[in-house]
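FIELD: query
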Amino acid sequence: MSEKIFKTFCVFMQKGGVGKTTLTNMLSYELTQYGKVLIVDADQQGNLTYLYDSEGKLISEEKCFLSVLKEETNLEDAVVTCREPTETTKGLYLLGTKKNDNDLRSYMESGFRDDPNSIRMLVKKAMEIGFNYVFFDLPPSFGFYEKIILANATDIIPIIEPEDFAVESLTNFNTQIKKLKVQYDAKFSNCKYLVVNKGNNQKLVHKFWTDTLKKSPYEIFEFHDSKAVSGAISYHLPMQEYNPGNPLCKVAAELAGKIK
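FIELD: result
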């Protein structure tokens, strides 16, 4: 694979608890086979950071996503290594956020409006220092802050649960993404893939909505409900390390192969 490739991803849906952070981490981990990956925890909850820094020893006010946005720290100095490169992978790195960072939340709501170009500059710097992929983990909202990050992505991957409001949520997502392209002159590719998460085919309602979503123009990737997800979180490990034989890992590998 060419070292010149560079892509920026967001897994997104304007709803909490659908699995954005889990999927972001799994896909980021898989993409290390194809290039050097930076995951950016842009969510003030800091859940993605907590996976790799459960004791809070790696991330500080001087070494975090917010400090880079405010130009108080260089990106190179704030990035921490999650997984070293190996013979078959290029390495996984994190620009983290403190757990429940109220300072980031305040900045998202006010200070960020003064310099929305900070995201564009962060992405540009990540490319300059040799990353091939940047993955942003976003909050479950759709304000100015989220829109700017999404507008700087090359690819957006919607994720949804097979529930009664699934189609309505997807329709709303499509509408908002179309507006985003026009209002922010966003250059991201048309969304090709849709992740249907937490499905259980033993439940008729889940099967019904999954089958319904398969009629959409997206290529569907099904991540069935698995207790292993909570296990991986408890042990602060990516799913691929906690339970590599889990079917979710195979689906993540297939999707990573598509988006690379």
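FIELD: remark
The longest strand covers residues 193-199.
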